[in-house]
Specification:
290 residues; 10-stranded mixed sheet; single chain; alpha+beta; 9 helices; 2 domains
């Protein structure tokens, strides 16, 4: 526990700069929980209790205080977390930022929808929402608000490249990304129809690809609604042997596949949620708000 009092005081000072707290007990409880999270390396209310900074004698009292904080609907998490993220991203102005949209299932009951910034081999959660939903598939109308909040957090002047997997391949999403002014690299399903000038339309999975081969098509249209024009990269990487059909708002090239591949760094997220990192899935938290 050596060093935790100094960490606690630092957190109280930092957190108090970014929000007008109606009740300072909320601030101090949050600081205690963060200290416990860092010191124990685990998402478990009981694991945090030994690192508490309070007059409580019994660990059960501290755990109940943590549980009440997490269940308090008046605590606005985005209002707390948002300014901290914005300050951390100040240096990213005039740079290219890679974002990844992904979902993670918890206990086959809750779906965690996240937008993360991918950098240096890791994905850093920026904005998220939790749904009581038994599937990874989420409608665009449900996660649109998450994208809008992310846009508010980004510094002025940065160039955004948004990535998403096949489960999010949807033309309303592409239209909304265009409104946000973001570039995008989205993997589509093999069942998507593609239309090219002077060519017969077909499904993308009907296009033969040898192992290690890549094809780049420009100014094509997708789905029977002929959405576009967009650009398409079709590849069959040597290392994965899976087919990649990546649609982009910018002309495709070999770099397009590399940019989409950046989102593979979200795999660490899934380990953190489950068996690795803070082991969220092994926690006793069973509430959407918490």
């Amino acid at each position: 526990m050596e060093g935790t009092p100094r960490l606690y005081e630092t957190l109280v000072q930092v957190l108090s700069q970014h929000q007008n707290w109606v009740d300072l007990r909320h601030l101090k409880t949050l600081a205690c929980m963060v200290v416990g999270l860092i010191a124990s390396g685990n998402i478990s209310l009981t694991a945090w209790a030994p690192y508490r900074h309070s007059r409580a004698v019994y660990a059960q009292s501290t755990v109940r205080r943590f549980a009440r904080w997490l269940a308090n609907e008046r605590i606005d998490v985005p209002a707390l977390y948002g300014p901290l993220i914005q300050q951390a991203l100040v240096e990213w102005s005039n740079q290219r930022v890679y974002l990844a949209l992904e979902t993670s299932m918890l206990w086959n009951t809750y779906c965690l929808v996240r937008v993360s910034l991918v950098s240096r081999g890791r994905a850093i959660p920026m904005v998220w929402t939790v749904l009581e939903h038994r599937s990874r598939s989420v409608a665009f109308e449900v996660y649109q608000g998450v994208l809008d909040k992310m846009a508010e957090r980004l510094p002025v002047g940065c160039s955004v490249v948004f990535t998403a997997d096949r489960g999010f391949a949807d033309t309303p999403l592409m239209e909304h990304l265009a409104r946000l002014g973001w570039h995008w690299r989205i993997r589509i399903k093999g069942s998507f129809w593609v239309y090219r000038h002077g060519k017969r339309h077909c499904k993308v999975n009907r296009i033969p690809l040898a192992l290690g081969q890549a094809i780049f098509w420009h100014h094509v249209y997708l789905t029977k609604q002929e959405y576009g024009p967009v650009h398409l990269a079709l590849a069959r990487p040597q290392e994965s042997k899976a087919y990649w059909f990546v649609v982009s708002d910018e002309p495709t090239e070999a770099k397009t596949c590399e940019e989409y591949g950046v989102r593979c760094d979200i795999e660490e997220h899934f380990l953190d949620d489950q068996s690795n990192g803070f082991q969220l899935e092994s926690s006793l938290i069973r509430s959407v708000n918490a």
